[in-house]
Design a protein that fits this description.
The complex is a heterodimer of chains A (about 160) and B (about 775). Chain A has about 160 residues and is an alpha+beta fold. Chain A folds into 2 domains: about 80 residues, Ubiquitin-like (UB roll), CATH 3.10.20; about 80 residues, [2Fe-2S]-binding domain (DNA polymerase, domain 1), CATH 1.10.150.120. Chain A contains 6 helices and 5 strands; from the N terminus they run ββαβββααααα. In chain A, strands 2-1-5-3-4 form a 5-stranded mixed β-sheet, sandwiched between helices. In chain A, β3 and β4 form a beta hairpin. Chain A is globular and about 45 Å long. The termini of chain A are far apart. The relative contact order of chain A is 0.15. Chain B has about 775 residues and is an alpha+beta fold. The chains are: A alpha+beta (about 160), B alpha+beta (about 775). Chains A and B meet through α2, α3, α4, α5 and α6 of A and α1, α3 and α17 of B.
């Protein structure tokens, strides 16, 4: 009788997730997106493709946008990982969240968390981005609903809301 | 959130954000793959490795014996077909006896984890005797081709021949008759959320609960009942948040039934998440289409006759095929006033994934051909592209020759608006080299007036509930798939009742709770569910007004509710807050439940000819758009600089959403026009990822100006019609017309990829050189 493949060896992973340090025993071959969704239970980060095609899984690693479906969880040891859940303050939405909501930068919403995280990475290094800057920063994030017009407007509006 | 409850319909306002937008921007929205599936088994599908063959042997013994495998199902576990039209359900959830396309599901496993499930698939033994396979309509129809389905000679799933008016006389009266052959590639919905399902079978109660990415929950319930031999009352279908549909999820999909079969066989919960590749392998998208279009035209641009042959490569099974080919013919009508129209349609079986419904169902490729033809003939007649369209406008109200009701039409104003906003007059013919402008029009139905399963029930039902807390809950089966339909329901209820929007909560898409709805297809929800919601709200208002009248000691006719205050006439001193009126209305009876319905009358349900119901609707949306392009003659790359669009949606219930829908549909048309194309190598998809299947990124996406035209449809909710599909079909022809304007080449094939453009440019240079040599020689 055939046996299932042995599970990959687990090692301790220590990272900061949305501002809080945590330690988990994580398989060496586990992808960051699976760690975020399955281990940490944060399902805001989406999987839209088979690897690096759509950008729906974009999270921040030390403020840099990364596709979490192409990143091994263990590569993030000691790093600060931020997901869409980490953007929401206790009482108010982050300016990008408010802008995407009010300007209809989200329709079906599936690309939205990744799109917002990619936009957040942009705004952290460039708080008055041009339309061209926005297009370059979001070029790896596919949206099938909006035609991107209202996404650009949302990022511009968020930039204006930020102090 | 802005409260809009008290604004008059038709007043200038910007609209409101989606009522479920906060969940989406915070990541709290749970899509099917996000649902709690702790302890669920992982379902995976074994697929046919060949395009066409007889199944000789399927042995799942080793897979079944693998440690960690809980259930394996094959075609033997389901002797029932599924599909869309009751007359054309010729597909098994898992193949029996024969496979007809690469990737067709053959068997499925449920195992404790993904690795085990994958290993189990590798242990399945499958022997097949290969049969000749056909990857084009022509090959499938050729003499001697073996039949994919024995009851369909020549591999023609359906032929349609409709003639309205006197075709011969029409062409005789024409000053110019031209015929065009135009072909459009197969394109895919490419919704960003991959397919997923969570099925739970409780063996003690024998109940099945399926949560899935469906656009039409009740179709899924019907097909689960049929394929699993279950009483429908034992099945619950829930639609969680859905990450886009565009038609991909209108029909029941094989994996949804397979998950049900697995859950029952495993007596447990099965989660199935398809890869992006699998989404492409079994896609249900817009078919590859060849259009032969002959038009007769008078010198003034008036069309005298139209003869159109359409061949759709439908793939291996029926799916929506018959409806798609009927739409192609029916929607030749309803936009221009053409005195004679002949349609010959052929839906062909081929050894490729079955095609289905996609945004602008059936109408897009035909509209593309017609709008390209209009421009080319106008050029020959030295007519302006706007003038040729204005010469043929339909005047509402009217009934088309094929029996479609047109009750409102704002196309003329759409043309005026885009002519102005694009500054067409000042710019056409004066653009620098390589730049061009193009225009095209399009239309679409606001809901099929005759549903596929005709039961005599209303076309839409909405329930409203008010209880002691004063909150209003609207229950609808209508699937919000991102288009904003739940927000639309909340708006019309709040506007009808005169209460603020945030008092209304919408519960949608759960067969145990919400009334049956025909679903998110044919852009029916705003028109039909919107009208049902208004009806429900009026019924609730009558109850509340009666209670308020009794409290205020006035006649019900004198009471109105404005801004959550019930009062006697406007400006009256005596008034009661909404919450107090609800409390008064509950006395004696408790919770108030009301129902609202909407039914399309028989006269709206299309012509009496065979297939006449397809295309019938209570209201057509109309769109015009101008596209500006730059063509790089060195690389063949086309960039779209800007789009000016106008849509007649009757009345914009939520202008923000209308804008978003128009931008999204124009842009999806751009993908089809420029870069999207499925390609197969011996039946194997060569496009099965979002890198190979090129949807436009933000970098190549232009600004899209949206003008909303409000023709106030007499039957629409507050005068509204659809806004999500009508604008799509205009983009590809507007682009092709703009490219012709830019570089003087007419393209007959979609998409206009750089290689196609380069090839045309090279050919023109070669012809130019040959011409020069010939001139020298003579």
């Amino acid at each position: 009788m055939a046996q299932p493949q042995p599970a990959s060896k687990k090692r301790l992973l220590r990272l900061k997730l949305n501002g809080r340090w945590r330690e988990d025993a994580v398989a060496e071959n586990q992808l960051l997106v699976d760690y975020i969704r399955e281990v940490a239970g944060l399902t805001g980060t989406k999987i839209g493709c088979d690897g690096g095609e759509c950008g729906a899984c974009t999270v921040l690693s030390d403020s840099q946008p990364v596709p979490s479906c192409l990143t091994l969880a263990h590569r993030c040891d000691g790093r600060s990982i931020e997901t869409i859940e980490g953007l929401t303050g206790r009482r108010r939405l982050h300016p990008l969240q408010r802008a995407f909501h009010q300007k209809l930068g989200t329709q079906c919403g599936f690309c939205t968390p990744g799109m917002i995280m990619a936009a957040e990475a942009l705004l952290r290094r460039n708080f008055r981005p041009s339309e061209e800057d926005i297009k370059v920063a979001l070029s790896g994030n596919l949206c099938r609903c909006t035609g991107y017009v209202k996404i650009i407007e949302s990022v511009q509006a968020a930039a204006e809301m930020m102090p | 959130m802005t409260a809009i409850g008290c604004e008059t319909p038709g007043s200038k306002r910007r609209g409101v954000p989606l009522i479920d937008g906060i969940e989406k921007v915070t990541g709290r929205a749970r899509y099917t793959a996000d649902l709690d599936h702790a302890g669920a088994l992982v379902g995976m599908i074994f697929r046919s490795p060949v395009s066409h063959g007889e199944i000789k042997r399927l042995d799942v013994t080793k897979a079944r014996q693998l440690d960690g495998v809980v259930a394996v199902v094959t075609g033997d576990d389901c002797p029932h077909t599924y599909g869309v039209l009751p007359v054309a359900m010729n597909e098994y959830p898992l193949a029996r006896e024969r496979v007809r396309y690469r990737g067709e599901p053959v068997a499925a496993v449920a195992a404790v984890d993904a690795a085990t499930a994958q290993l189990a698939l590798d242990l399945i033994e499958f022997d097949v005797r290969e049969l000749p396979a056909y990857y084009s309509s022509a090959a499938a129809r050729a003499d001697g081709a073996i039949l994919l389905h024995n009851d369909k000679p020549d591999n023609v799933e359906r032929e349609v021949h409709h003639t309205f008016g006197d075709i011969a006389a029409g062409f005789n009266e024409a000053d110019l008759v031209r015929e065009f052959r135009i072909s459009c590639a197969e394109v895919n919905h490419a919704q960003i959320e991959p397919h997923a399902v969570l099925a739970d079978f409780d063996s003690t109660t024998q109940r099945l609960t399926v949560q899935s990415v469906t656009q039409v929950g009740y179709y899924l319930q019907l097909m689960l009942g049929r394929c699993l031999d279950m009483d429908l009352s034992r099945i619950r279908v829930i639609k969680p948040f859905v990450g886009g549909g565009f038609g991909a999820r209108v029909e029941v999909l094989n994996f949804e039934i397979v998950a049900g079969l697995l859950a029952r066989a495993a007596a447990g919960t099965v989660a199935m998440q398809l890869t992006r590749e699998e989404n492409f392998l079994t896609h249900r998208a817009r078919p590859q289409t060849d259009v032969t279009l002959k038009l007769g035209m008078r010198r003034n641009g008036q069309i005298t006759a139209c003869a159109c042959e359409v061949v759709q490569r439908g793939g291996a099974y029926a799916g929506y095929g018959i409806v798609t080919i009927l739409y192609a013919g029916a929607l030749l009508h309803g936009i221009y006033d053409i005195p004679a129209v002949k349609f010959d349609g052929y839906r062909i079986y081929a050894n490729l994934p079955p095609c289905g419904a996609m945004r602008g169902h059936g109408s897009v490729d035909v509209r593309h051909a017609l709008e390209c033809a209009l421009d080319r003939m106008a050029r020959e007649l030295r007519l302006d592209p706007f003038a040729v369209r204005r010469a043929n406008l339909l005047r509402a109200p009217t009934q088309t020759m094929n029996g479609l009701m047109v009750n409102s039409c704002g196309l003329s104003e759409c043309l005026d608006r885009v002519e102005q906003t694009s500054n067409w007059r000042a710019r056409i013919g004066r653009l620098p080299p390589g730049k061009g402008l193009g225009i095209a029009c399009s239309h679409y139905v606001s809901g099929a007036a005759k549903p596929i399963h005709w039961t005599g029930e209303p076309h839409a039902v909405v329930n409203l509930k008010v209880d002691f807390d004063g909150g209003i809950t609207a229950f609808t089966g209508a699937a919000d798939i991102g288009q904003g339909s739940s927000t639309m329901v909340a708006i019309v209820v709040s506007e009808t009742l005169g209460v603020s929007l945030d008092r209304v909560r919408v519960v949608a898409g759960d067969s145990a709770i919400t009334p049956k709805d025909n679903g998110a297809y044919s852009s029916r929800i705003t028109f039909m569910v919107g009208n049902a919601a208004i009806d429900a709200a009026k019924n609730l208002r009558a109850i509340l007004i009666k209670a308020a009248a009794s409290k205020l000691e006035a006649k019900p006719d004198d009471i109105e509710c404005v801004g959550e205050q019930f009062q006697i006439g406007s400006g009256s001193q005596a008034s009661l807050p909404f919450a107090d009126v609800v409390k008064a209305a509950l006395v004696g009876g408790g919770v108030i439940n009301v129902k609202g319905t909407f039914t399309c009358p028989p006269e709206a349900q299309g012509g009496k000819h065979k297939g006449g119901a397809v295309g019938s609707t209570m209201g057509f949306s109309y769109a015009a758009q101008v596209v500006e392009v730059t063509v790089d003659e060195a690389t063949g790359a086309i960039s779209v600089d800007r789009v000016w669009s106008a849509l007649d949606c009757g009345h914009a219930i939520n202008p923000l959403s209308v804008e978003g829908q128009v931008q999204g549909s124009v842009w999806m048309g751009m993908g089809q026009a420029l870069s999207e194309e499925t390609r197969y190598l011996n039946g194997l998809p060569a496009h099965a990822s979002l890198l190979e299947y090129r949807v436009p990124t933000i970098v190549e996406s232009p600004p899209i100006d949206v003008q909303i035209v409000e023709s106030q449809d007499p039957n629409g909710p507050f005068g509204a019609k659809e806004a999500s599909e009508g604008a799509l079909a205009g983009f590809p022809p507007a682009l092709v017309n703009a490219v012709a304007n830019a570089i003087g080449i007419d393209f007959d094939e979609l998409p206009l990829t750089p290689d196609r453009v380069m090839q045309a440019l090279v050919e023109r240079r070669r012809r130019g050189r040959i011409g020069a040599l010939q001139r020298q020689a003579s």
